[in-house]
């Protein structure tokens, strides 16, 4: 089992910044991809940003404002959010795709962390 611990988030004024962190712990795994999803009340869960060893991708709504990065030594992914808008308010979920030494691929979700943006 791989455990994901999310931190950051909270309440911020429109135009402000926030950084989310997600740390993966456990043993006998390598990370193929990490990403952030979000779900606002009454809306579908959507991909915000994802990162692999080779690339990053972002939802159109956050391009130019959000930056995803990773610290491989800490098995941690970050989402730096700038110029936050009220429409960014949602529960944000970390997602990690891992591979076991024997070849099994698995996916894990964080518990979700609230981001609230006031106007």
Describe the structure in brief:
By secondary structure, the chain is mainly β.
CA gyration radius, whole angstroms: 14 Å
Give helix and strand order, one letter per element, not per position: EEEEEEEEEEE
Please give the largest β-sheet: 7 strands, mixed
Broad structural category: mainly beta
Number of strands: 11
How large is the share of residues in beta strands? over 45%
Number of helices: 0
* Fraction of helical residues: under 10%
**What is the quaternary state of this protein?**
single chain
Shape: elongated
Give the distance, in angstroms, between the N- and C-terminal Cα atoms: 40 Å
Q: Indicate the mean pLDDT.
A: 97
| Low-pLDDT segments, ≥5 res | none
What report would you give on this structure?
- This protein is an all-beta fold and 119 residues long.
- 0% of the residues lie in helices and 58% in strands.
- It has strands spanning 3-7, 10-13, 18-25, 30-39, 46-51, 56-58, 66-71, 76-81, 90-99, 105-109, 113-118.
- Strands 2, 4, 5, 6, 9, 10 and 11 form a 7-stranded mixed sheet that branches.
- A hairpin with a 4-residue loop joins strand 7 (66-71) and strand 8 (76-81).
- It is elongated, with a radius of gyration of 14 Å.
- The chain starts with a strand and ends with a strand.
- The mean pLDDT is 97.
Q: What is the fold's blueprint, element by element?
A:
Blueprint: E1 3-7, E2 10-13, E3 18-25, E4 30-39, E5 46-51, E6 56-58, E7 66-71, E8 76-81, E9 90-99, E10 105-109, E11 113-118
Parallel strand pairs: 2-11
Antiparallel strand pairs: 1-3, 3-8, 4-5, 4-9, 5-6, 7-8, 9-10, 9-11
């Amino acid at each position: 089992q791989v455990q994901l611990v999310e931190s950051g988030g909270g309440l911020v004024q429109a135009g402000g910044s926030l950084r989310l962190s997600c740390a993966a712990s456990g043993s006998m795994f390598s990370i193929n991809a990490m990403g952030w999803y979000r779900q606002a009340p009454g809306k579908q869960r959507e991909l915000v940003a994802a990162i692999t060893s080779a690339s990053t991708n972002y939802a159109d709504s956050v391009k130019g404002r959000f930056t995803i990065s990773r610290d491989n030594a800490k098995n941690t992914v970050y989402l730096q959010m700038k110029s936050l808008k009220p429409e960014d308010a949602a529960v944000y979920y970390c997602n990690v795709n891992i591979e076991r030494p024997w070849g099994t691929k698995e996916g894990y979700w964080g518990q979700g962390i609230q981001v609230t943006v006031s106007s």
